[in-house]
Amino acid sequence: MTAKIILASTSPFRRALLANAGVDFSVDRPRIDERAVEQTTHGSGVTPDEVGLILARAKAEEVSGRHPESLVIGSDQTLAFEDELLHKPNDMEAARRRLLAFSGRTHFLHSAVAIARNGQTVWSHVGGAAMTMRPLSPAFIGRHLARVGEKALSSVGAYQIEGEGIQLFERIEGDHFTIVGLPLLPLLEALRRLGAIDG
């Protein structure tokens, strides 16, 4: 019998990626305090990609503890800019300041994914992408945010490259799925290897 697959995330983007790939799964929200987990890594030399992996594993393992026989997928994305780990902007003014800071510069996205079974991680992966924005005028940023609205607040970078946010960029180096928030190709390969999807 094939193991049931559970996505430990309420992200509509991650749900859509898995559904579009033809994976049969259910969703269960992880009951963890992400900022509290992150706090345990401060001052310990943990890199932004490692923070993402710690959070992905924590989500997968927490949900797996409640569904021990299932394969639980946890994921997290971190953004590093000038050696600082950034979080989603709280309001439109914070989004405006973020895009202004990114203008003409490169930031780095790290998308981590983990699979847990019986409360233990059985596989994990981190993908990275270098995101270089073109120079943006304050006026253009204002018009752009007025058009996209509060959707800008649902992403750590204050943009969605699968939408109008793609217009902000000059160069992108990395996998599309990693940028959207779920390194899909390595994940699908792991699910095939674990016998959870048809291979």
Report on the architecture of this protein.
By secondary structure, the protein is α/β, with parallel strands linked by helices. The protein has a single domain, classed as Maf protein. Helix content is 36%, strand content 25%. The protein contains seven helices and seven strands; from the N terminus they run βαβααββαββαβαα. Strands 1, 2, 3, 4, 5, 6 and 7 form a seven-stranded mixed β-sheet that branches. α1 links the parallel β1 and β2. α4 packs across α5. The longest helix is centred in the N-terminal third of the chain and has 19 residues.
Helices and strands in order, then pairings?
Elements: E1 5-7, H1 12-20, E2 26-27, H2 34-39, H3 48-66, E3 71-81, E4 84-86, H4 92-102, E5 106-117, E6 120-133, H5 138-148, E7 169-173, H6 176-180, H7 184-193
Parallel strand pairs: 1-2, 1-3
Antiparallel strand pairs: 3-4, 3-5, 5-6, 6-7
Helix pairs in contact: 4-5
